[in-house]
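Researcher: Good morning. I'm working through a list of sequences from a screen, and I'd like to move beyond sequence-only analysis. For each chain I'm collecting a predicted structure so we can compare shapes side by side. This is the next one on the list. No need for commentary yet; just the structure.
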Amino acid sequence: MSTRHAILGVLMQGPAHGYRIKKIFSPFVSKDGLNDGQLYPLLTHLEGQKLVRKETVRQEKSPNKNLYHITDRGREEFLRWLTGDEDETDPVKYDFFMQYSFLMKCTFFEHLSPHERIAKLRRQIETANGKIREYGRMREEMKERGLNSHKLRIVDFGVAVQRLKVQWASELLEAETRALARKRVSRGRSKTNRPGAATAKYRSLGRGSNRPAKKG
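Model: Good morning. Structure tokens for this chain:
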């Protein structure tokens, strides 16, 4: 993902200060968002390339504010990126494997106990459902702000991905639960069918039947 081009895209909508850029862009960058240590060096770099222009807005009762504008050169660079095929292909063959890091742990699930695997899958389902709710709230806010359908569809894509995760993890959880239940039944049967188990049972019954009857 090209962070610099995404920032230019935000500025294509109009001038913005750093906080607004971060607020718009952060949810789509990483789980920790876009922090000041990442954003402002990028803006300084873009300014050095003459792709953005910084305007200092004087304020009497509060600190001065830096407002960033995209330049003509910045528009040309953004449109070059947008119309070209850069960032349209996945960098690795199994991109889904790299993007969903939990799959790496699933590769080594045989080293966990059934209870540990089940607990991890339940947490994945809970997390994905939480994201679905969060994306739903985000979508409603975007609709209220009058954002276009293309932006709404991006959030819809995120919801669909999380729903697929829930479905996949739920199916795996069901398989793990069934396997654990079968294992318990098998253990119960093996205890019953153990050599000498039946003999001991019949001896116990025999001792009970040979007891002298109580006199009334």
